[in-house]
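Section 5: illustrative case.
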């Protein structure tokens, strides 16, 4: 089959578009879903005037199917489809938009065409080394396959496809030291991207997801019965389809409004009031207004982390300094005496009611009083190397930890040692050179030898207790650690829709038989005096 060349400005344009127009590669899924939604809109619009289409709006859908074995991600829709000529016209020419043409030809309030430019489809090449499009147009007897590996061009051949619609198959690029394309094969990552970018697409976006549930308790189970769990696959609709502000007020519960407000605006309290408004006339709009502060409706609260926002960067130096003073006073000093008094009133009752050692999670944004309150009450601090107490230090060092503390490598709300190692290569490199004291380039992954070195340094720390996760213990042995580092993570607190589903990849019986690992742990504990 002959290779066809793109009709736009050459290989440089495609290369420029992939590497410059979109700096955030995860939006490729948004672009492909938007195109699929456009196709569904076109078919629905056609069905309103052509009864032979034989489809209703409820029949239209978009489906996502990841396949880890073949490293493919498939996005399928049963929209209008494309003929050979349309594939050539819309995909063979960069910056050609069939959606824009359709919008121009059909002026209607009932048609919501998202794609207004022809470049979005090509964002797929940011994550894929080959893209295949198989499409059968409404009313056509033949399907066609468009296939390309990028700047070299594309092929267009006849294909087999029974149903009307389009199927886009991405063969993902191979993972590198810095880029993990395989993350786009994880169902939770795909679900998060749909919720983030495509939640209000008005056609259902579905995907089969693996879930866990407890097995029914056998009738003859004894008192020592332990619950058993099983995994199952379920087709799940990932998007809500109708924006909450467009739904009739009598169909939305107060808790839905409150949850939407807290998720979108990163607040922990319910809004004081929710006001909905719909105005029709020359201009029609729907508004949803939240009144956030219950006690001081005329005051504004500085948002956590706003210094990383473009709004803050737009301030001049004097304005930034003034804002920083307000920010620090509000979060760290404003209620310091109050917190200290309340702590000394309530915490002694807890610490004196038990003979156990009490540990406090004194990380992140905390009032100044926390340190002296914990010291006075003999509460152990929590020490994590990648979250040092000194803001001038990038990493803590186990040798610096106070005796009255618990040290660990990671917690349930953080990535494990292996996961952290692969998150930011530049940071890993600095850790490798400055903390571990090695020369040269850091390895792309945390080898068992490196993991053992980190674990051993924590066992040698000054902390009275060293408590490590099972994942970090097992990271020292290439045979027994989890082959998939992404599965080691327990929770992502920044994602309100993430749910705890970690399961150890080994059974306890297997772990007990892991003699090399167990002997290594036993020897390390004994040699460090733990």
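Designed sequence:
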């Amino acid at each position: 089959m002959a290779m066809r060349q793109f009709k736009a400005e050459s290989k440089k344009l495609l290369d420029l578009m992939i590497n410059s127009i979109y700096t955030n590669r995860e939006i490729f899924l948004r672009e492909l879903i938007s195109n699929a939604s456009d196709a569904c809109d076109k078919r629905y619009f056609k069905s309103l005037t052509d009864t032979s289409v034989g489809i209703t709006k409820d029949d239209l859908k978009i489906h996502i199917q990841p396949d880890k074995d073949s490293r493919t991600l498939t996005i399928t829709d049963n929209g209008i489809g494309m003929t050979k000529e349309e594939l050539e016209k819309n995909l063979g020419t960069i910056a050609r938009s069939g959606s824009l043409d359709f919008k121009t030809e059909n002026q209607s309030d009932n048609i919501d065409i998202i794609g207004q430019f022809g470049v979005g489809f090509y964002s797929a090449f940011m994550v894929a080394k080959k893209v295949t499009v198989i499409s059968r147009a409404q009313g056509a007897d033949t399907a066609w396959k468009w296939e390309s590996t990028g700047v070299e061009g594309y092929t267009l051949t006849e294909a087999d496809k029974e149903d009307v619609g389009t199927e886009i198959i991405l063969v993902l690029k191979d993972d590198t030291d810095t880029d993990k394309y395989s993350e786009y094969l994880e169902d939770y990552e795909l679900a998060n991207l749909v919720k983030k970018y495509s939640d209000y697409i008005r056609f259902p976006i579905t995907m089969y997801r693996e879930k866990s549930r407890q097995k029914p308790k056998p009738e003859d189970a004894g008192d020592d019965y332990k619950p058993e769990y099983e995994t199952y696959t379920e087709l799940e609709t990932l998007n809500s389809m109708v924006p909450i502000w467009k739904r009739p007020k009598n169909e939305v519960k107060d808790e839905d409004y409150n949850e939407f407000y807290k998720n979108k605006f990163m607040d922990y309290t319910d809004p004081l009031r929710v006001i909905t408004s719909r105005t029709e006339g020359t201009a029609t709009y729907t508004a949803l207004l939240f009144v956030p502060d219950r006690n001081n409706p005329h005051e504004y609260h500085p948002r956590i982390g706003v210094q990383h926002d473009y709004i803050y960067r737009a301030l001049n130096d004097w304005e930034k300094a003034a804002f920083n003073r307000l920010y620090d006073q509000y979060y760290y000093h404003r209620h310091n005496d109050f917190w200290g008094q309340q702590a000394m009133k309530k915490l002694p009752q807890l610490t004196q009611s038990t003979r156990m050692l009490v540990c406090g999670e004194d990380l992140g944004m905390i009032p100044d009083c926390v340190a002296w309150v914990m010291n006075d009450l003999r509460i152990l601090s929590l020490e994590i190397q990648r979250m040092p107490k000194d803001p001038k230090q990038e990493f803590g060092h186990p040798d610096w930890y106070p005796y009255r503390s618990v040290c660990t490598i990671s917690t349930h709300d953080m990535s494990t040692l292996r996961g952290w190692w692969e998150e930011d290569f530049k940071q890993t490199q600095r850790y490798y050179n400055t903390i571990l004291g090695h020369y040269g380039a850091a390895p792309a992954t945390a080898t068992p030898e490196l993991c053992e070195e980190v674990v051993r340094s924590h066992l040698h720390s000054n902390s009275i207790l060293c408590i490590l996760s099972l994942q970090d213990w097992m990271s020292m042995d290439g045979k027994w650690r989890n082959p998939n580092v992404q599965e080691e993570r327990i929770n992502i607190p920044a994602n309100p829709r993430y749910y705890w589903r970690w399961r150890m990849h080994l059974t306890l019986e297997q772990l007990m038989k892991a003699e090399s690992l167990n002997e290594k742990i036993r020897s390390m504990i004994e040699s460090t005096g733990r």
